[in-house]
Specification:
single chain; about 425 residues; alpha+beta; Rossmann fold; Dna Ligase, domain 1; D-amino Acid Aminotransferase, Chain A, domain 1; 25 strands; about 30% strand
Amino acid sequence: MRILVLGSGGREHAIYLKLKSEAGNQRVFQLPGNGGTDPQDKLDGTLNDFTSIARQIRALKIDLVFVGPEQPLAEGISEYLQKETGVAVFGPDQRAAQLEGSKVFAYQFMKKAGIPTAKSIVIENLPEGLAAIEKHSLPIVLKVDGLAAGKGVSIHRDRASAKEKLIEIFEQRIFGQAGNRVLLCEFLSGTEASLFALCNGSEAIFLPVARDYKTVFENGEGPNTGGMGSYTPGDHLTPAQIAFAHQTIVKPALQEFSYVGILYVGLMVHSSRADDISVIEFNCRLGDPETQCVMPYLAGDLTPYLLWACGRNNPIPKVAEEGFYRVPVKAGASLNVVLAAKGYPGDYEKDIPLKLPQKMPGDVHIVHAGTARIAEGQFVSKGGRILNIVATGNDTNDCRQKVYAFIEQLKTNNDFSRLHYRKDIGL
């Protein structure tokens, strides 16, 4: 099996590492990859050049393509590559990808399908939004309609800051066309959980539940980021709640879109009651940074599930629960802490030198995100989220100890005054 992973972030590097470790795969390539990608596996190109990608797929005789990020999915890369190359592509088509590509589209679908979610108002312009804020109860949640790299959601506990944000969106155009429309939503309280449904167009099988940490600082403080850490298994969803989500949320999406790929359901868990959950958002791909801890927690290979989703392989190993199926997992837990550039998600420094050990301690590994390779063991930062430190262990606390002990080791050879990480992941 020859596989191409599209993307350059931590999510895609975690997928690349997982697939590369599986004995049945002859070669795994990554385009464009990052500093952690083996140079012999790294392909040149950009994710918006579909023609070049198709040409390389044919030249390298690729069997399966895994599309990591949301932008090319929203632009229709899955159907383009299938048409041009006949290759199996893991990822939804353009219409289904609008569940993430447009918050308004997703809200309208949920409203039509009767899926529990926050009450929302679609805002088309600034005067309309300012008037709505005056009437809306606090706190107020604002979500820009289009893709915004995980930074398009803001929570406001006073009307003044909500109005300032709308001015930034509509007048200062901080999100560009992604901010042409805004969802003004009611605030949902509870515990967040990430549910990943692996779909083949008509059926779904669930990956482990994970928990991620969105705010840049401890205790839920500071602006939202793309995610500062994660762990699995999350204890935030009971089997009864997963069964409810399967029946009430995932099945309607399968029926509406013949969905192929990962349907990520961001949930707010209000209580332990099976039906007391609400959808915060849909994503059309695996989560980042949840993927980094989910991959090493899987008990077997990932490749058979990808082929199953693409209609190329059946049956697959699965564990029957009451009302749904899940992928087999290992005993214990997995945890991921993100090392970011200081200042992220705002302005941050790039080209920070990084020196990484060539020999890793047991049960700990590094997943690269915003990095570039300079030499063996030497890298520089190229993004806001730079590295993911991932550990497996007996339980979440065991993983925490391993990750934070390794970070302390990194401090001996790296300038951590230029880096930032949360110290409460897993607590």
